[in-house]
Amino acid sequence: MFARVFALLPLALLASASHLEARDQCNTGAINCCNSVQTLSQANSILTQFNLVDAAAAVGGLVGLTCTPITVVGTGSGCTAQQQPVCCTNNNFNGLVNIGCSPINLNA
Q1: Where along the chain do its domains lie?
Q2: Mind listing the GO molecular function terms for this protein (predicted)?
C-alpha cells in the first residue's frame, strides 16, 4: 500500500509543478514580446494598411506591433524592459501585427 503511494508521489508533484508553469501560457498561441501594444482605435491606421480592421474588431482585445515569440516560459525573461509580454489570438504578418492580444505577467 505504502509503495503505491510513494510511487505516485513524484507524478503528483510533477503535475502540480507543470500546473504552476502553465499559468502564464496562452491557450490561443505563443506568448509574445511586443515593442508596442495599442488599443484598436490607436492602431487603426496600421490595421487599415494591412486590411485587418474588420478582423481585429471581430477578435477584440489589443493590437501587438513588432512582436517576437517567447520560447522559454517561466524564466521571467524574454522581454526587454521596453517590451510588453502578451498572449495574442492571431499572429498576422510574422509578428509585425498581432491582433486579439491581452497582457500577461511572466513574473507571477
Answers
A1: 2-103
A2: structural constituent of cell wall
